[in-house]
Amino acid sequence: DRGDGGVLSQVRTLPVDHPIARYLGAQDLKAETSRNASLGLSWQPSSAWSTTLDAYAIRVKHRITLSQRISRDGLAAELKSKFGESGIDGVNFFTNALDTRTNGADLVTQWTGPALGGALRLG
Q: Which of 11, 32, 33, 103 could cross-link to 1 by cystine, CB 3.0-4.6 Å?
């Protein structure tokens, strides 16, 4: 990983139960839970033309993401003093940082017809 100013730095991704991660605020992970709903409609007014509409809503609670890199002046010396770990300039760990909602719809229409002795499909 590159730190500020183009200088290489040692960043470790730690499990949440690692003593350094706990020291920096890591907590036990909760299981992600999700709910979703969807609805689909289709319409075919002729054999050449069809349309579909699919709508959806997805909710995820306790989404697991990677934390931002935790780094500060003197962190390497602090971690060496407290944990005997040397050369660590930054740390990140997994966390339940987000609840997300995704809503959307997909509309697809397609027309098929003759063209130049073959078939043309537009969609």
A: 11
Which residue do the tokens 């350094």 mark? 20
List the domain range (segments joined by +) for residue 58: 4-110
> In this predicted model, what pLDDT tens digit does every residue of 11-21 receive, in sequence order?
999 999 999 99
How far is 94 from 46, CA to CA, in rounded Å?
Answer: 52
Determine, yes or no, domain membership for 34.
yes
Kindly state whether residue 115 falls inside one of the protein's structural domains: no
pLDDT of residue 118: 87
Mean pLDDT of the chain: 93
**Residue 98 · residue 63 · CB < 8 Å:** yes
Neighbour count for residue 80 (Cβ, 10 Å): 13
Q: Within a domain: residue 119? A: no
Cα–Cα distance, 75 to 86 (Å, whole number): 10
Query: Could you tell me which of 90, 94, 77 has the C-alpha nearest to residue 10?
Result: 90
Into how many domains does the chain fold? 1
Q: What values do phi and psi take at 64, rounded to 5?
A: -90, 125
